[in-house]
Amino acid sequence: MKRKQGSTIFLKVVVFLMATPVLALCLFWLPGVASRDAAANPETAYLQYPFLACSYGLAIPFFIALYQTFKLLTYIDANKAFSELAVHALKVIKYCAITISISIVLAIVFIALFMEGDRAGVIMLGLIGTVASGIIAAFATLLQKLLQEALDRRIENDLTI
């Protein structure tokens, strides 16, 4: 029992450590980058606020997925890993990962169409993010299906006993 809680505590700390720098970037780094870019390139200064809106919009599903991951770890601690709550958390994580992937693909299309100059690095970072989100979505889907099957079997066994 202690070992399981120790590993979930470690994973909860990892979730917190993943959220902290992203939150700091959103609050402190992004506005400065957007305003510096707008000052350096007045012809594209009008893109400052859409850039910030899209960046913050992309952060929302990220934080929702991290929160659901934290809840899932809490369910594991409370011996509710095989519950509808856990299935729902995995479903939300899956939808957040799909939302992030689609958002990044749309951003890549926008960059490819409207950005001048060297865009290869930005597009490559976007593709890496898309693949990572896709892997998370696939993994969450697999876990969700396995967990749902285990729940269904447990319900069937409880009904036959």
Question: How would you portray this structure in words?
Answer:
The structure is a single chain. This protein is an all-alpha fold. It has one domain. The protein has helices at residues 2-40, 48-77, 84-114, 120-160. The radius of gyration is 20 Å and the shape is elongated.
| Shape type | elongated
How many helices? 4
Helix/strand/pairing category: mainly alpha
Instruction: Give the uncertain stretches in residue-range form.
Output: none
Biggest sheet details: none
Number of strands: 0
Distance between the termini: 28 Å
- Give the radius of gyration: 20 Å
Element pattern in H and E: HHHH
Residue share in β-strands:
under 5%
Mean pLDDT: 90
Give the number of domains. 1
Question: What is the subunit organization of this protein?
Answer: single chain
The level of helicity is over 70%
Brief account:
The chain is mostly helical.
Question: Which short descriptors sum up this protein?
Answer:
mainly alpha, 161 residues, elongated, single chain
Give the helix/strand layout.
Elements: H1 2-40, H2 48-77, H3 84-114, H4 120-160
Helix pairs in contact: 1-2, 2-3, 3-4
